[in-house]
Amino acid sequence: MKRILIVIMAVFSSGLVFAQSGIKLQELECEMLENPLGIDVVQPRLGWKIKTEKSRVMQEAYHIMVASSLEKLNNNNADLWDTGKVTSDQSINIKYKGKELDSKDKAFWKVKVWTNKGETEWSETAYWTMGILTYAEWKSTRWIGYNQLFPGESVSQFSRLSARYVRKNIDLEKPVKEAKIYLLGMGLYELYINGNQIGDQVLAPVPTDYTKNVKYNVFDVTEELSEGKNVIGTILGNGRYFAMRQEYKPYKIKSFGFPKMALQLVVKYEDGTSETIKTDESWKFTANGPIRANNEYDGETYDARMEISGWNRVGFDDSDWMNLMWVQEPGGFYEGQMTPNMKVKDTVMPVTIATKDDGYILDMGQNMVGWLQIKVNGKRGDTIKMKFAESLKEDGSLYTANLRDARVTDRYILNGSGTEVWEPKFVYHGFRFVKITGLQYEPKVEDFIGKVVYDDMETVGSFESSNETMNQIFENAFWGIRGNYKGMPIDCPQRNERQPWLGDRTTGAYGESFLFDNQTLYSKWLDDIKYSQTLDGGIPDVAPAFWRYYGDGVTWQGAYITVADMLYRQYGDVSGIRKHYPYMKKWVKYMEDNYLKDNLMTKDKYGDWCVPPESLEIIRAQDPELLTDGEVLASAFYYYLLNLMEKFAGLIDAEQQDIAYYQDLSARVKKAFNEKYLDKSKLVYANNTVTANVLPLAFGMVPKEYEQQVFENMTHEIEVNKDGHISTGVVGTQFLMRTLTDFGRPDLAFKLASNRTYPSWGYMVENGATTIWELWNGNTADPEMNSQNHVMLLGDLMIWYFEDMAGIKSDPKHPGFKKILMQPHFDTGLNYVNAAYDSSYGEIKSHWRKKGKNLNWEVMLPPNTSAKIYLPVSKASEVKVNGQPVDDLAEEISVEDGQLVFELLSGDYTIKTN
Question: Which residues form the Bacterial alpha-L-rhamnosidase N-terminal domain (predicted)?
Fold first, then answer.
């Protein structure tokens, strides 16, 4: 008999934690946090995945038990929450409604479900632990630091500050039952207990505007502590806290001060007593450790001669170390970190090493983000210098002009002890090439390993097709997206910028969600945006607002709304909308009050950024015929956002007057927009750029009687005037591929996706790109402007790959992939597509292959879901499903616009048409 398994997960305020269980499962899978500790949400949302080989499985009811101890749960004593049997097919986002949980409480839970194919056993047990829920519980924990410079340190355009090595001897007088550390380490930290590093996170914690909120991490250190003498050690790096370039442009760059920390070690003893050890003035530190400088833009300097043997172990003599001082707290509210820290997620082995001038050029073969681990030999005091770059000059030397004033150089000073292995702790680089100097011998490629660093999230999507250009673009997107996840979505990882620009992710976040499980990252980012909002409602261009840019645009700031919509659409998560709705509404009103004139939005800052220019040698287009008026962009986008806000108001049962407000305002904007910008004689918008036409088409602003002709005129502009190439910038490209496809030209979208001539994504591939460029002409325009690892020009391409080519799309009426719309466009020019996406319900697969008029399509649907299938035939007799007539397995068969449409419940299917 086939068994039905359950994989359970806890969904907290800002995203998923697969707390994991299952009848036969042996190990944790899809873990979203390092551990389910430190949850500061009193009503977490719970969910589970049903795993079974059975087909057509739909949940009919569930029963959740939550208990305060494992023993109680095993005895079915659900003293915290017992739902009883609940008739429902809901298996994600179920809000905990049990007894109110206090700080540091632990909750154990399990679930069983009833399906149309039978009842499951109880799942294995999962748990979560509450964090510190009130400021009062932190109040007596002192922040410690040292707000002075040491010799060799500086605050300047190129600030230098050594890492702070911190230690505390503690004496535990009884056997330890349980111990947890709650740590606030600003800007970055590494944590040790008795010489052992705690956790495998890097560059932790995630960055925030520390004057608004600071994140704490929680670690279970029970196994590391024992009765008697112990040592807690930390290394504090600079990160975004001790801000780079802080004295260079103080009006622009936000600074927070010197590194500092606050820590609580909560120990529960076997005899039932407990003790809390906190940071205070008795903690000791030194700045005379081996990390002499660490700066995200400029690199890390490590002097192995200054290593401090045993500094984080019992018995070390710290009598000549200084006492840390009580210092002012950062100012922001303390929050449990609900998104995972960064980790080393992959490694890259170099492909070549070549002699160049006074050193060697290492080629990683891939533009990557992270750092280089080295294995070297030399005399004591030899300095190995590593300078990083994305590309080379024609003479084979590093090209670094596009890095601006970022020095991107790591230095390692040998101690002369033999073979020495080193990698940095508190920096990262965006690079493909490394120049290595200072070696007294010829190195081998095996002496170096590239460490790929990004947020610890699962890869959830894969895509392959019969077109190699599209496949390589997908690979480039994959490397670019993950490289720019740094506790927040940044624009680029290599130059002196690395900022979380809102405009880069307005639609980008949606496409990225098909490749990576980015729910918690973008939930956290919504908080960053909220914290950056001004009192009167303004939203910055970058959030957290490390740069003071408040441009009051629409196309950039609109990411606040579109990202919340993505979380709802892709994950069924309405909590972000509910939480942020008042602040979004405040921004909508702010823009109306300040910039809406004659019902049109007059304020735009960046235009359709990075339109392909008229000349390959210039960075930005100057020809007015290529540029879209800012009022067109802002007004159309504002209309789009008003419609989303109307949807949000309905989802959260906002007051009816809110819905009326959005409806009235959007109607007025639409009317004014068409009156001013629709040329009824030519049936084009404004100056007939593709962007000027695609936005009103995508947003439903075009009067129905003119819609088809406007679309045809737009496609004429693409096919004839632009010779079948892209001509949109950041804004227009966000809606281009889907609009072409929705209006019946998926073939033209395919041409744009598969081009290898300028301007196109394939042109980047043709010219050796392994990530996505910032400029369409990044190899010919002033290369000092071009980041070779940006994602903003992807637009809606990744969405189009999965939704329109693979046919994996969440039904907007049933978000989170509860119901799936599978409507691949088989007539674009592709012969096959093989794609998969691991949704909140489980993995969805779509693998189709076309030969002549025959189609073979393999589909996999996870339990408790269904899919609406679209086929390019009009008769059911032309279709077989698993070798049977379609009528035997399908539901609700109909014909829509010449396509056969039917519903399939969960399972594996092979669909064939003749």
Answer: 174-345
End-to-end CA distance of the chain: 35
pLDDT tops 90 at residue 881: yes
Give phi and psi for 56, each to the nearest 5.
Answer: 60, 40
pLDDT bucket at 22, cuts 50 / 70 / 90? very low
Two tokens, residue 55: 């087909």
**In terms of DSSP bridges, do strands 819-822 and 854-871 run parallel, antiparallel, or are they unpaired?**
parallel
Q: Do residue 624 and residue 556 come from a single domain?
A: yes
The single-letter DSSP state of residue 490 is: -
DSSP state of 887: H
Buried b (16+ CB within 10 A) or exposed e, 799-823: bbbbbbbbbbbbbeeebbbbbbbbb
Q: Do 241 and 253 form a contact (C-beta atoms < 8 A)?
A: no
State the CATH number of the domain containing residue 86: 2.60.40.10
3-state secondary structure labels for all residues of 655-704: CHHHHHHHHHHHHHHHHHHHHHHEECCCCEECCCCHHHHHHHHHHCCCCH
pLDDT tens digits for range 594-641: 999 999 999 999 999 999 999 888 888 889 999 999 999 999 999 999
Paired strand residues for 47 = 9
Strand positions, DSSP E, 377-428: 383-389, 391-392, 398-399, 409-413, 420-422
Last residue of a domain, one of 129, 152, 167: 129
Name the burial class of residue 247, with classes exposed (0-12), middle (13-18) and buried (19+) by CB atoms within 10 angstroms of its CB.
middle
Those residues with Cβ within 8 angstroms of residue 764's Cβ, 6 or more apart along the chain or in another chain? 473, 476, 772, 773, 778
With both helix axes pointing from N to C terminus, report the angle between 746-754 and 730-742 in degrees, rounded to the nearest 10.
Answer: 140
Inform me whether the pLDDT recorded for 2 exceeds 70: no
Do 841 and 818 meet the contact criterion of CB atoms below 8 Å apart? Answer: yes
Q: 171, 130, 152, 153: which is closest to 41 by C-alpha? A: 130
Looking at 102, 129, 156, which one is the last position of a domain?
129
State pTM to two decimals: 0.96
C-alpha distance from residue 878 to each of 806, 860, 868, 909 (Å): 21, 21, 18, 16
* Bridge partner residues of 301 (DSSP): 293, 411
How far is it, in rounded angstroms, from Cα 706 to Cα 712?
10
Average pLDDT, stretch 75-88? 98
What range does the domain containing 495 cover?
461-806
Same domain, yes or no: 799 and 848: no
Query: Maximum Cα–Cα distance for the chain, whole Å?
Result: 88
Beta strands in 13-53 (DSSP E): 15-17, 45-52
Amino acid at 78: A
What CA–CA distances, in Å, run from 820 to 179, 568, 709, 864, 869? 45, 15, 31, 11, 9
